[in-house]
Amino acid sequence: MAPGMRQIHPRIAHAAPFCSFTMLVVAKSKSPVALKRLAADIMNKDSGVFEELVNSVRHYTIAFVSIPDSPNDHPWPSGTGTLVTINGSHYFLTAEHVWRALKKLRSVGITLVPEIDQCFTIPTSHLMAVGPRRPAAENQGPDIVLLKIPEAKLGEIKARKSFYPMEPVAQKPRVEGRCIEIAILLGAPGESAKLLTPRNLDMTIHGIMADHKAKKFTKGRYDYIDSKEFFGAHGFPKSYGGFSGGGLWHVHVYLDPKTSERKERCRLAGMAFYEFPAKRKYRIIRCHGARSIDAVRAMLHPKTTKPSKLIMLS
Fold first, then answer.
1. Among 305, 165, 292, which Cα is nearest to 216's?
2. What is the strand order of the sheet 262-275 is part of?
3. pLDDT in tens, the chain (314 residues)
4. In sequence order, what are the beta bridge partners of 66?
């Protein structure tokens, strides 16, 4: 939490699907009335403000769909990915175990536009994967990978989605002055997928506000975030299966000092990869943090990376 800031509300769950209020921080003193009103609007499920904030990062996100090799089988949901660009190249950032399952098939489908009949596929043999070695235990990690997207597929993706420019976290400018800060976790829960036709799977990217008191720790080059999330009530999923590979975003919401217009600044701060068994009303969702994302990003430059740390995943 930034100096001079304080938490003003505890975690509150709305009845609306996938809309839990987790974190609001405002200036410790002389907080403008307008900013307090904005905080109240984020908490109010009927205002639509939270959904607008989710939309500000949803356009960087896709859901993966497994396309069966046999025409007699149905497609099924297979995790989430974040669209990122690094040094002019374009990638899916996702969990390694998501890719491990997808690469067994000839093609993978991705969702581009909600609520329409679509079929956008990429041959898995055309995706080049870079990331750390497979972990001995999936809950321990690291479980993260970058999948390079072939140039021939970029046009249609760019027409409907955006790519997040991945630069070292240290270069991301901070929001100065009074602001509201929230964490949003995006994912495509498998339990909400609907098979509309034998070959058409309806997938939706959902956003929840992530736990601002999440436990954070580091092991070697990789960092981890254990986020405690509601499940099975107030519209929350019974399982977070499908959130694997989904981005964890930090969103700063503030009022323009000149126009008083609401503005947002978003930063990709992590990626979900493991769901622990439920305890009471919560599940722990383990995510990689920003340090892990930067570590995988560095693997794209073998000259500056030790050979033992670099592995091409095919």
1. 292
2. 206-209, 180-187, 247-255, 262-275, 282-289, 222-230, 215-219
3. 332 222 222 222 332 333 333 334 444 434 578 778 888 888 777 888 888 888 889 999 999 988 877 777 777 778 899 999 999 999 999 999 999 999 998 888 888 876 555 568 899 999 999 999 887 788 888 999 999 999 999 999 999 999 999 875 545 555 556 778 888 999 887 766 666 655 666 677 888 877 777 889 999 999 999 987 766 555 666 667 788 999 999 888 888 777 778 888 889 999 999 888 777 778 888 999 999 999 999 998 755 434 333 333 32
4. 76, 108
What are the structure tokens assigned to 270, written together? 């992590």
* Amino acid present at 254: Y
Sign of CA dihedral 141, 69, 193, 147: positive
Tokens of 254: 């503030």
Q: For strands 121-123 and 20-21, give the pairing.
A: unpaired
Tokens 């497609």, residue located = 75
Q: Please count the other Cβ atoms lying within 10 Å of the Cβ belonging to residue 75.
A: 21
Please give the backbone phi and psi of residue 194, each rounded to the nearest 5 degrees, phi first: -125, 130
| Joined tokens for residue 111 | 């969702």
Long-range Cβ contact pairs of 70-73 (< 8 A, separation 24 or more): none
Expressed in angstroms, the distance from the first to the final Cα of the chain is 40
pTM of the entire predicted model:
0.81
CB 1 within 8 A of CB 174: no
Query: Number of H helices and number of E strands within the chain?
Result: 5, 22
Distance, in Å, from the CA atom of 297 to the CA atom of 5, rounded to the nearest integer, reads 32
Query: How many residues are recorded in the chain?
Result: 314
Q: In whole angstroms, give the CA distance from residue 202 to residue 64.
A: 11
Tokens standing for residue 287: 């995510």
User: Which sequence spans correspond to the domains of the chain?
Assistant: 10-314
